[in-house]
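hey so u asked for the seq, here:
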Amino acid sequence: MNLDSSTVMIIGAARSGISSALFLKDRCKLVYLADTKPYEALEKDGFGISKIKDISNIKTIFGCQPEEDIIKCCDLFILSPGIPPEAYPVKTAKKYGKKIMSEIELANCFFKGRIVAITGTNGKTTTTTLTGNLLKNAGFESYTVGNIGDAFINCVQNASENSVAALEISSFQLSMCEKMKPKVAVITNITPDHLDRHKTFENYVSAKAEIFKNMTSDDTLILNMDDKVVSSLADRANCNIKYFTLTDNPLADAYFKNNSIIINLDKSYKLIDKDQLKLIGMHNVANVMCAALAALIMGADIDSVRRSLESFDPVEHRVEFVAEKNGVVYINDSKGTNPDASMTAINAIERPIILIIGGYDKKSSFDEIFELIIKKVKHIVILGATKDKIVSTAIKHGYVNYTVVDDYEQAVNVCAQKAEKGDCVLLSPASASWDMFDSYETRGRVFKELVKKL
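ran it, structure tokens below
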């Protein structure tokens, strides 16, 4: 990809936008970095905006929209993950027929190694982190990147032909990837999510299916046999298919039998017992199956995979133990950004639960999660942009054990007052973070700091 004479505009000056600007500064004529936030707010976000201040061929447009004349002069547009398609610069770029891609696609154009790409509604972060860990411990030159936190573009400079990128990729990013061809791809599960962006569930599924559109018979797609939507995608794929299931089904390539994960690739053998894992919940057994299959297919040895699984700690913000105070356990599941993810967290916990719920509205329904809340949750503390929708859903289902608060300090204090010895206070908002925080990571860290102060 030759950009020597190009003018590129990067829309969004957070983690991936800043990384893209730094990568492109020596590879194109001029870079514009645009964000509607002012510089002071971007600096406060902590993604390193100060790194681009004195670079001569990076021009910044902060605190406003870029002018149409500037957009017309740009050859290529790089979108950060959170930028919606209806954003002014995106719509204007499309009007003039400009090329638009994600930071993931930009990195893919320069990356020399192989890609293990992981998508799905839930489980992506744990599966990606675990896959990168298994590959690294097996001796691979491995990078864990993408929607997980570290931008894919950051590893491109140092990567070799022997590199493997464990890449978490969202539906937004997939919809802007034309050429990516993973060696191995994983779809963990698909349930309704991001309907504010995709409008219909069918559109959302189609975006996820983009992960394997360029894959061929030399590549392998790992699918969830227990998810009818995911397993049905096999008919659209032109590559090798491997399946995992949480049932005792020896027709799958990874399955669960007698409390153990069984691998069934070239031969059948027990990989590990569920009780040997530090990760809790059956959803994490599924994540382990995905990661183990991916690593083994890439060539990792069995003994290395087994040792790595035994020592792997839970991912931050995903059913993460924070503290025990006065006999009450506090769990951070800020990564629970949709009802299905939060239901998984609730089901993983065996104690009575006080639940913190609410956040940015992604147009999800809360009916199904309330069927579970009625059975397993003593009290819910509601806040954020979805609070009115959650309250109305609670009333609809006859659930009266709730408190509405304005901020996280109030939420944690109410939980501490309501919880009794033996209970669990669970932050799993079933909503995105963007109404109150710049990311679910920030939301989770605020929760943990507040818990520590109790």
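The longest strand covers residues 30-35. The mean pLDDT is 93.
lmk if thats what u needed
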